[in-house]
Structures are given as structure tokens and as C-alpha cells.
Amino acid sequence: MKALVFTDRHFTVGSVDPRIYSGFIEHVGRAVYDGIYEPGHPTADADGFRKDVLELVRELKMPLTRYPGGNFVSGYNWKDGIGERSKRPVRPDPAWSAIEPNQVGVDEFVRWCASAESAPLMAVNLGIGTPKEAGELVEYCNFPGGTQWSETRRANGSAEPFRIKTWCLGNEMDGPWQIGAKPADEYGRTALEAAKIMKWIDPEIELVVCGSSSGDLPTFAAWDATVLEHTFDKVDYLSLHAYFGDVNNDLADYFASPDRMSDRIDELAATCDYVSAHKKSKKRINLAFDEWNIWFHSNSSSAQAKRWIVGRPILEELYTLADAVVVGGLLITLLRHADRVKIACLAQTVNVLAPIMTRPGGGTWKQTTYYPFYYTSRYGRGEVLRCAVSVPSQRCNNWPKPVEMLHSTVVWRREENEMVFFAMNRSLEEPMEFSLALQGFPVKEVIEAVEISGDPTAVNTEEHEAVVPKFRDPAEFMLSAGSVSGVLPPISWSMIRIRLNQ
Ligand code: AHR
To answer: Fewer Cβ atoms within 10 A, N terminus or C terminus of the chain?
Structure first.
């Protein structure tokens, strides 16, 4: 199979906002307890956070980490998680049928973020929480001092405000599974009132309002339009969530996931623009894809996990090589929408739907999906070029559109004088002979070529990392003054870094 990819230095999609490489730590499963936090662990720091986990998180270069949920936040009282740890309440968490000991709260999480070289993307409870409590959390975190909650923060050891910039106005408020789920009008009104208080307390903050948590809900897009009609003047981003999976045991269909994500982005960007048009405003609401990942392997083991314990082992996906190829493809989709998606959170980061796994008292290991995220986060920063692609398409069973067999994008790292080609070969059998034309770019050499390919069912465990990146010999690629060509194996994700002449 052959693919021609044309780019030109004058035609760009937009600059990558590095926040599309953000992560997510929720109080769910073993993400916090026995994940990032394990006070008895040999690598634990003064707060009880595992330094070996922190090291792996730092490698992923996640600018933001969403916290504390997720579904958890909609029943959470942030005041339970501050002050003397031994005095904090132990509560049942109805969202995940678990026990929440509140040993990690906002102060500890802010310190974890500093160690992880990340920043909090803080969610407030608009399920059963109130706009008043949301404002008090902003006061606790960001108000310099002299008020009840800012002085409480100071008394708890943080003289300086946390200066948390970006906040989520609740979580998945359209979902019937959500604690305190609301119809769009009711949520829109509540979110507006919370937003007013939060921005009055700290005018520097920016806000993400809940959009549709799934394209399958009957309220999809209508929900978003209604919520934005209420909150338009006060919010900066609309949130969207999507999880993908090989639910039909049909790889060709599964490999259409990046296209499904792409359509979701286009549909909600159009919804944002509809509301702008309706309001006769030039304000542009951008998108925060603040939960995305693969989620389908762990459904039955989660259902069987013991309930009402701390750190229930739920949502522990064991990712395959095919999943890593799809995650690489989903990252390509996010890049291709660099003009509109400004924040995206891989959901999640540790143990729960995660690239990083831990064993209590033991080691850590990297899931297959760690690698495409690692490389895209490192090298997918710069300007995304428009690509015109000529490649065969195929039909699959559960997606109505033709699927191009090559899913790719090109990022220009102007300061590094480098082009980075990210590519997913979706063919299940055929190698892809590609030719990448870089019009206006003087190609010098291939710096590095990394590939994930092989048995699509292979997985990584603590004992054996079966799926690791393969480093290809740069000599396998042919260069001319303005192009690079080579072969991508079937079922593969690749990153090829190309140095330009000065
Ligand atoms: O990431 C796991 C869960 O998925 C989150 O808590 C929720 O927001 C979503 O449904």
C-alpha cells in the first residue's frame, strides 16, 4: 500500500498547546491510595508520595494534572481533605463504592504536582456541592490572606497562594451515573453562578464548563449548546470526554477510533461556534478534552472487586500493543485539532486506565500506552502543518465513513530546526510505503525513528516488558531535498524526527 503526504511550510493548522499532554489523578481505584501515595513505601517522600512513580510521571511531561475527579468530585467535600491528617473524616465514596480516608487532599496534591513538574487542573463539586463551596475552594487556594479560608491555608503550612490557574466546573454533569446529575438548564445556571463567584474571588483564573461526557447520550450537543447559552460570558473552554475500546473484537473497527475522536471534536467545536454566532460574539470557546483514553478490558474485573475498601483495584486496564497504536493515533487526532483543542487529559495517569502501574511495596512498570504518549509529549510540540494525503481507505463495521489506512500529522519544531512525522498504519496486513513531501523545508537527515509494532495482543507486566519502542536505523529512510520516504509496518505507530538544513 502506498501513501503520499504533502505539507508546505506556509500552511499550518496552529501551534500545539502543551496542555494537550496533561494527565488525570482521581480519587478512584488505586490511583491515589497504593498509587501515587503509599507512605510505607521505601521511596515515599515526606508527604507519603512514591518518588519512583513521580519519576515516571515527570518523564511524560504533563503540564496539568486534573484532580480530584472525575465522578468522585461530585460527592466530595474539599474541606474533608485539609488540616491535621489524623483528624480528617473517613467517608464512603458513593461514586466508586470505596472508602475515602482523606489522607490526600488539596494541599498534598499541590505539593505532588510540584514534584511531578505539573500543575493542578482543579475540579469543583457542582453535583451536590454549591457555588459557595466552589468559591471557598478558590479562596483557600488562591486568595493571598486575611480571610477565613486563605488564613486556613496559611495555618495549614502554605503561606503563599497556590495560584491555580485552570478550574473545571464539575464533572460529567449530563451523565445519569453522576452524583447530582442535572438537566442542561439547571447545570448551566449553577455553573454560571459558581463561575461568577470563582472569578470574582480570583479574576486571573480560567474555567472549563462541562460539555457532553459521551457522544452516545441523547442530549449530545444540545446539552452543550444550552450550557454555553448560560455560561458563555464567564467560561473559557468546553469540556468533552471519550473512551474507546475494541468492544466488538474487531481491530479494523477499533482502529477507526481516532476518526471517531476527530468527529466529536468537530461537532462540539461547531456547537461552540453556533453559540458564538447566536450571541453575535467573536469570542471563541476552545475545547478541553479533559478525559480521553481506552477503557474496555477491565469492566468485568472491576465489577468483581471487593467494595467499601480503600484503594479498590478497579479500572486496571492491561493495555495491549494494539491499544498503544490506538493511543498514538488518538494523539495524532489531538494534534490535528491543535487550533481548537487547547487542553487534553489522558485519563488517567497511575493504576486506573493508566500508562503507569504500581505494586504496593514493590516496583512500577510502564504499560504499552506509555510509549506513544512519552514520544508525542516530548516531540509533538511546535506548529502542526496541514497535510494533504493520498492513501487507500477501507470501510469498517461500526463506523459509517471510509477510514484512511494512514493516520498521520507533521509537527514543525521551528526552534529545533526539526520536523516530526507521527504516523499510524491502520492496515492489519499491509506495510505502508509512504512518501512525505515537506515543501519549503530543506531536509538534512533522519535523527531518530521510533516504532511500536508487532503482535497486537502483546502486553507489558511488571516481570516482562514485551512492548517497547523499536529504534529504526535512519538509513532505512530515503531522503531528497524536500522529502522523506520509507515503509511503515502493518498495525504500527511511528515517530520519525527529521533534521532540516539551516
Ligand atoms: O476516568 C474514569 C471516569 O470516567 C471518571 O471518573 C468519569 O468522569 C468518567 O466517566
So the answer is: C
Instruction: At 31, give phi and psi (nearest 5°).
Output: -70, -50
Answer yes or no: is pLDDT of 2 > 90: yes
Buried b (16+ CB within 10 A) or exposed e, 118-137: bbbbbbbbbbebebebbbbb
**Using CA atoms, how far apart are residues 81 and 87, in angstroms rounded to an integer?**
10
Q: How far apart are CA 403 and CA 260, in angstroms?
A: 10
What mean pLDDT comes out for the span 175-192? 98
Are 355 and 393 found together in one domain?
Answer: no
Neighbours of 439 (CB within 10 A): 13
- 178 and 273 in a single domain? The answer is yes
Report the atom number in ligand 1 closest to the C-alpha of 95: 6
**Cell numbers 511550510: residue:** 9
> Are 203 and 285 found together in one domain?
yes
| Co-location of 138 and 181 in the same domain | yes
Each residue of 9-49: pLDDT tens digit? 999 999 999 999 999 999 999 999 999 999 999 999 999 99
Q: Are residues 345 and 300 in the same domain?
A: yes
Q: Which residues line ligand 1 (CB under 6 A)?
A: 26, 28, 69-71, 171-172, 291, 347-348, 353
User: Residues 133, 52: one domain?
Assistant: yes
User: What distance in Å separates the CA atoms of residue 264 and residue 291, rounded to the nearest whole number?
Assistant: 13
Task: Give the distance (Å) from ligand 1 centre to CA of residue 183.
Answer: 19
Across the range 127-142, mean pLDDT stands at 98
Q: Where are the beta strands (DSSP E) in 42-110?
A: 64-67, 91-93, 98-100
Q: Which atom of ligand 1 is nearest to the CA of 28?
A: 6
Cα of 31 vs centre of ligand 1, distance in Å, is 12
**How many H-runs (helices) and E-runs (strands) does the chain carry?**
11, 26
Distance, in Å, from the CA atom of 319 to the CA atom of 28, rounded to the nearest integer, reads 19
Of 353, 379, 405, which one is at a domain's C-terminal end? Answer: 379
Question: 147 alpha carbon to ligand 1 midpoint, in Å?
Answer: 34
Q: Which structural domain, as residue segments, surrounds residue 336?
A: 17-379
Q: ∠ CA 377-383-262 to the nearest 5 degrees?
A: 70
> Which of 362, 379, 396 is a domain's end point?
379
Ligand 1 atom closest to the CA of 69, numbered from 1: 6
Note the maximum CA span of the chain: 68
Q: 465 and 432, same structural domain?
A: yes
394-421 CB burial, b ≥16 within 10 A, e <16: eebeebeeebbbbbbbbbbbeeeebbbb
* Predicted model pTM: 0.98
Residues 334 and 391 in one domain: no
CATH number assigned to the domain comprising residue 133: 3.20.20.80
- Asked if 211 and 223 touch (Cβ cutoff 8 Å), the reply is yes
